Amino acid sequence: MPAPKRSEAPSRIRIAKPAPVLDGGRYAVKRTVGDTVAVSADIFRDGHEKLRAVVKYRAPDGRRWLENELHTVDAHINGVRWAGEFTVETPGRWEFTFEAWTDRWATYHDELRRKVEANLDEDLSGEISEGVVLLAAALERAEGDGRGSIQHALHVLSDAGAPFAQKFDVALGPELFDAMETFSEREGVTALDPAIPLEVDRVRARFSAWYELFPRSWGGLKAVEARVPEIAGLGFDVLYLLPFHPIGVKNRKGRNNTLVAGPDDPGSPYAIGSAEGGHFAVHPELGTQQDVRDLCRTAHHHGMDVALDIALNASADHPWLTEHPEWFQQRPDGTLKYAENPPKRYQDIYNFNWDTPEWESLWQAWLDVFLHWVDAGIKFYRVDNPHTKPFPFWEWIISEIHKVDRDVVFLAESFTRRAVMRELGKLGFTQSYTYFTWKNSRHEMIEYFNELAWGEEKEYFRPNFFPVTPDILHAYLVHGGPPAFVARLVLASTLSPSYGIYSGFENFENVPVREGSEEYMNSEKYEIRQRDLDGPLLPMIRRMNEIRRENVALQHLSNVFWLEGQNDQLLAYAKQEPGNTIICVVNLDPHDAQVGSVTIPAHLGTAPVFVVEDLMTGAHYDWRIGANYVRLEPWGEQAHILKVL
Amino acid sequence: MPAPKRSEAPSRIRIAKPAPVLDGGRYAVKRTVGDTVAVSADIFRDGHEKLRAVVKYRAPDGRRWLENELHTVDAHINGVRWAGEFTVETPGRWEFTFEAWTDRWATYHDELRRKVEANLDEDLSGEISEGVVLLAAALERAEGDGRGSIQHALHVLSDAGAPFAQKFDVALGPELFDAMETFSEREGVTALDPAIPLEVDRVRARFSAWYELFPRSWGGLKAVEARVPEIAGLGFDVLYLLPFHPIGVKNRKGRNNTLVAGPDDPGSPYAIGSAEGGHFAVHPELGTQQDVRDLCRTAHHHGMDVALDIALNASADHPWLTEHPEWFQQRPDGTLKYAENPPKRYQDIYNFNWDTPEWESLWQAWLDVFLHWVDAGIKFYRVDNPHTKPFPFWEWIISEIHKVDRDVVFLAESFTRRAVMRELGKLGFTQSYTYFTWKNSRHEMIEYFNELAWGEEKEYFRPNFFPVTPDILHAYLVHGGPPAFVARLVLASTLSPSYGIYSGFENFENVPVREGSEEYMNSEKYEIRQRDLDGPLLPMIRRMNEIRRENVALQHLSNVFWLEGQNDQLLAYAKQEPGNTIICVVNLDPHDAQVGSVTIPAHLGTAPVFVVEDLMTGAHYDWRIGANYVRLEPWGEQAHILKVL
Predict the structure, then answer these.
(1) CB distance B390–A46 less than 8 Å?
(2) Fewest beta carbons within 10 Å, which of A165, A467, B426, B527?
(3) A387–B47 CB contact, under 8 Å
(4) Binding annotation of B for alpha-maltose 1-phosphate
């Protein structure tokens, strides 16, 4: 190649290893409104010249780039890592980049200072003449106070009669330095290109408590609306509704997932679509479009959001099967393929053919479905099995919906390989289900939570901890009973800023359809249950939600410190934000009392001896840096939630 | 945005986290001719469909992409990591990428197998009809033996009279599977784009032994040429010459770096340029252009390369100062700035102004200098202080020189911040100087070598270990004497595939110009010494070079395992390639005997008890997995170099 043709030589400055960034900027890192974003990069050039660097950042639809100064943070080692920060105030797609330039005045200042200090009695008039050039150039750009400093210095340095000692004094002065830093031209400005994307969500995307219910078990949408004040009073932020659409009749499943439905069996709400309509419709027995709007308005009035469980599949009676057979998979013999995972078959459900040549109209139809419910007031979507639909579809549809309403939140209901779950988080899902349900020992819990809180996932994968779901009743709860429910509630609600309860959890429901199964006996998926807010665990749940709202340490993910407990049945950890330290100790054994000594490390920054308040009982204890005696028993307290006073 | 307009839906396959790759492909990873390149990537899609994947690779100027199959390596965990390999046979810029597609037949085969095995007595004629479609499509592309299998299967599956049991047998057959894998169309092929660059050098870029000398101390180029057979006989690959250009007279330095030269002082060979010429010229007292060519030819004849120390600076008498004043930095008063690092000043040297508006002609001039010497036969360049010249300059000039001669090797003489040294390696320098000289304790050596051998640097930063240079005589050698020289020789030549000796090392030269200085007394940089190949360490050096050539384990970097020695004065390690294990134990204490027990771990794969040969003495010892007694003493053996027999 010929030497690059430019008026200026190619930049001598390198900007590398920016943070935070995902896959080189292919995906956006996530933050929430009000966050201070800490950024850093390796910034260096050849030679010994001094650099200056800034982070430049731009709000969504912002016309102007703002900038904050960066500072080196490893000066004692390499001096190449620069760090700074900025605050994000509005939701949407932010961008940031780094810009660096050669600081000619600082370089000159440093050289001159060393020469003057060496006191070699050499002629430094050449050096002074260099200073004059730099000062004159800056003066053309200077304003305000700084202008005076520069003008004065230029005058002294240019004055053939002024003694050198005076010239050095002036040239090396701190006020002049500040003025020159402000007004000197940025030489060889180099920017990281392209800028790094940063997706900012509303705070509830990070910090939320969900209450999940089947509307039909509560008497329909109007009845649910009537319970909103109570549910809000329990401290929940999101009222999460299982699908409320019409349900197919053909191949309908019976109670306990039997293949043949009885005449009164309501069918699975995931077998969506009937003569009454598909994903745009409300099941006539549950209510009307207006009822959905009313429920949303009431929820918003009580500070809550409504979440809809959205499943992208169709019953055998879904109108789209006849209106759009091209969206479904047909066999060579013309029959449609129902869902299956051999040898299991889901005869009541048809999957969409995402490879159809008509994929564009299929994508558009789903966008219409989402926007229909967004318009009704539903801003949260728990998406069923997103990992069996194309990644590009999700990336597209989430972006399209956010153009209409940036407050919409998507929770990925995906339990599959890590890489796939992570990809869904990267491409736009706001929150994600996790493996939490299956992590019941101290070792498992710490290993897994470290992955979420301290790995790269912390930049984009927001866990939402559900101790149970309508599909997952873990053996730990089956065999552990109420103390196990308490332990899991405390873990979910203190470790993760977002967590959720599926109604029935507060009643300690724990009978599986058969021993060894994770399915519930008499699952609400296949029959109508009569639900009420009468569970004995509700007072504790209300208190947990209060504690979460009062303690900022419980509203963040990556602030956990595991504490040694000398007993593997005790899981002890501190969560800490500036000014707020919460210490949790959970007895993982639902059967027996467990004794241990929890070690508080000095780095938590407590006093050597300090007082903690048990936020469940109000009791006060003296704790100390070092070992602290703890005894927890299933017939008394299953967990301590201690606030450092 | 509207839904993307394409005939096919966007790819459902993701290819991420490819390895090896540097900075997302901005820089090339490095290998040498004959290497097998192990590659891997996360490859996955949504859903449950099975994938196939290949690595595609292309030789320099290759027209055709070749491909090798990839296989999953974490099937038991996530099943998303795929790995494979290919071999690089020619020097130059290779490229590789990954390609994956949905394996429709394997997916079909798996579903059908599970249904047949479940033996549910269901009608599978729909499934069979799907198979017919896949077989018919593949048949159109099939050739050879596979064609027969497919044709037969198509016949049986289409035959209304054939029993289902026979159809299943045929459809699930392994031969048919292989044929379908070969001939089925690749569905939804997705490639990583752009491809990843891979720079392949000749083997000597990785594995080399250098002998460094000042031609003037050996009687000039003709006299050096006469010693080539001896130096080659010592096992050196590269004869490295300090600059042989004319030296400036103005401001010439005297002996021991004094400011005023005496009438007979020859000056520093780094103060390049005089009335006799600049970087294109040969100092008349050292020889002629033809002598350089002769020396190169003789060296090549003896299997050696010649390296030139190239310093991009000029004496006060360099012709370019008058021919091209625009390439130098002028003060406002018109005077040129000489090199300085206040309070130090290098009045005999002028730096180039790399920010000159005439940078293009400056770059071109340096390219002409390099190509001049390449044409004379010099293929190795030890570049002086590359870290004070622009990064883009190096990236450009190395690439330009490689277009003319891909065998040229560049060694970066840079001792500065890690980030800068790494950048030079990334942008094209073939080998690099290191901090080796300053790593003299067990802890320092292990920590630093792990950085080189096991960090990302292993992909691009090839260390060249010099125990001393004309500028660096470490206190360890000053105070340790001959046993210290032996220890450093063994460490340099066994740990790093490339190492070098500066003449005088074999004579145990270790007198500093003053206590605490790393400069030599009577440095050859400022005076002419009379050198000869008479150092008492030469026999050991010859043997070390022999051992290195005979043992492939010593020709690679990232194959070291540190061995516990129960004594910090003993540094023990194994280096291992298939079929070749070398165990080194070095006594770091140059004054006293040290005793320890070196632990051989089971993972080295030796027999429980095995025989080692001391390659320096020929003695045989029984060693074992577990602890082995070692005693090393400065008055006997300072190090063991043991080969596992």
Answers:
(1) yes
(2) A165
(3) yes
(4) 253, 348, 385, 525-526
What pLDDT band is residue B1 in, cutting at 50, 70 and 90? very low
- What is the β-pairing status of strands A344-351 and B580-587? unpaired
Task: Give the catalytic positions of A in this structure.
Answer: 384, 413
Looking at residue B76, what is its pLDDT?
A: 67
pLDDT of residue A7: 62
pLDDT band at A1; cut points 50, 70, 90: very low
Interface of B with A in 317-376 (CB under 8 A): 331-333, 335, 337, 340-343, 354-357, 359-360, 363-364
Q: Do A335 and B47 touch (CB under 8 A)?
A: no
User: Is the model's pLDDT at B6 over the cut of 60?
Assistant: no
Any A CB within 8 A of B400 CB? yes
CA–CA–CA angle A343, A346, A352 (5° rounding): 115
Q: What is the dihedral sign for C-alpha A276, A282, A285, A290?
A: negative
Q: Residue A76: its pLDDT value, please?
A: 67
Q: Which of B450, B524, B541 is closest to B488 using CA atoms? A: B541
Q: Which two tokens stand for residue B214?
A: 């000042």
Distance CA A215, CA A286 (A): 7
Mean pLDDT (chain B, rounded): 94
Catalytic residue among B384, B459, B524, B637: B384
> Above 0.85 for ipTM, yes or no?
yes
- Strand, helix or coil for residue A525: coil
CATH superfamily membership of A560-644: Golgi alpha-mannosidase II (2.60.40.1180)
Judge whether A253 is annotated as a binding position: yes
Third-level CATH fold of A203-248+275-312+360-552 = TIM Barrel (3.20.20)
pLDDT in tens, B577-590: 999 999 999 999 99
Looking at the predicted structure, is the pLDDT value of residue A199 above 90? yes
The string of pLDDT tens digits covering residues B298-352 is 999 999 999 999 999 999 999 999 999 999 988 887 777 788 777 777 778 899 9
pLDDT tens column, A96-121:
999 999 999 999 999 999 999 887 77
Q: Which of A3, A48, A130 sits opposite B396 (nearest CB)?
A: A3
Q: How many CB atoms lie within 10 A of CB B319?
A: 18
Place of tokens 């360049």: B381
For the record, the structure tokens of A435 come out as 């493996």
Q: Model's pTM, two decimal places?
A: 0.93
Chain A closest-CA separation from residue B215 CA (Å): 30
Non-local (6+) Cβ contacts of A235 within 8 A are A209, A541, A542, A544, A545, A546, A548, A549
B-proximal residues of A, 70-129, CB under 8 Å: 78-80, 111, 114-115, 117-118, 120, 125-126, 129
Kindly give, in sequence order, each residue whose CB lies less than 8 Å from that of residue A519, ignoring residues fewer than 6 positions away: A257, A471, A473, A512, A513
β pairing state of B71-72 and B81-87: antiparallel
A337 CB neighbours in chain B (<8 A) are: 126
- Domain extent listing, chain B: 13-102+194-200, 105-183, 203-248+275-312+360-552, 249-274+313-351, 560-644
Per-residue buried b or exposed e for A430-442, using 16+ beta carbons within 10 Å of the residue's own CB: bbbbbebbebbeb
pLDDT of residue B379: 98
- d(Cα A398, Cα A405) in Å, to the nearest integer? 10
- CATH for the stretch A105-183: 1.20.58.80
- Amino acid letter at A530? Q
Residue A391 has pLDDT above 50, yes or no: yes
CA-nearest residue to A340 within chain B is: B111
A15 interaction partners in chain B (CB closer than 8 Å):
none
- Chain B environment of A331 (Cβ under 8 Å): 126, 129-130
| Domain pair A13-102+194-200 / A560-644, same fold | yes
- Provide the CATH number for the domain formed by A13-102+194-200 in this structure: 2.60.40.10
Section A466-495 average pLDDT: 97
